[in-house]
Amino acid sequence: EAGVAQSPRYKIIEKRQSVAFWCNPISGHATLYWYQQILGQGPKLLIQFQNNGVVDDSQLPKDRFSAERLKGVDSTLKIQPAKLEDSAVYLCASSLVKAKRNTIYFGEGSWLTVV
Amino acid sequence: DAKTTQPTSMDCAEGRAANLPCNHSTISGNEYVYWYRQIHSQGPQYIIHGLKNNETNEMASLIITEDRKSSTLILPHATLRDTAVYYCIVRVTDSSYKLIFGSGTRLLVRP
What we know:
The complex is a heterodimer.
Chain A: E1 5-7, E2 10-13, E3 19-24, E4 31-37, E5 44-50, E6 53-56, E7 65-68, E8 75-79, E9 88-95, E10 105-106, E11 110-114
Chain B: E1 9-13, E2 18-23, E3 33-38, E4 45-50, E5 55-56, E6 61-64, E7 70-75, E8 84-90, E9 105-110
Parallel strand pairs in B: 1-9
Antiparallel strand pairs in B: 2-7, 3-4, 3-8, 5-6, 6-7, 8-9
């Protein structure tokens, strides 16, 4: 079974530029998550989708971050304009449904460096 | 949301059992305990989860105390590849069922 796919794996941009990350969840998984992980810290949830609807985006900095999951499958996370403090790993994860016994599977992450 | 407390770091010798403790004294009756680990440069990897009974799978065993206020993840025969950050998470039971990560325990397996 294919895992959660993310791209690009690495990205370096200058501050004030924009960047987009793409995620393809495990086939059939209705719930999709984007996490941000700053070096030395645990992952922090940015946004959670159930199919193409947003369940939780309370930690998403909406002035610069946006995310969409138009057809309930792939998702894109965009940052515009980027700041130095956005340097982090952006992790996409998915689960079959949102339920307390459903395992959440993570991708390898997209590493962003803002210079 | 129930919080967890884990030691910042631990080490063990290769081939020995690694016992990673976790305190979750505010856990409620229907909240599951999940364990993930993160090897350097990779995404978090699911290990095991449980509610009240002890659980075992091909990767590890999870021992949950009778009062559910703490648990221990056991890697029976640690290898160098088990060096990673281990996260103990109490999964929220609101409608999102999301995972909220803490800082985890950095486990170093020594040769």
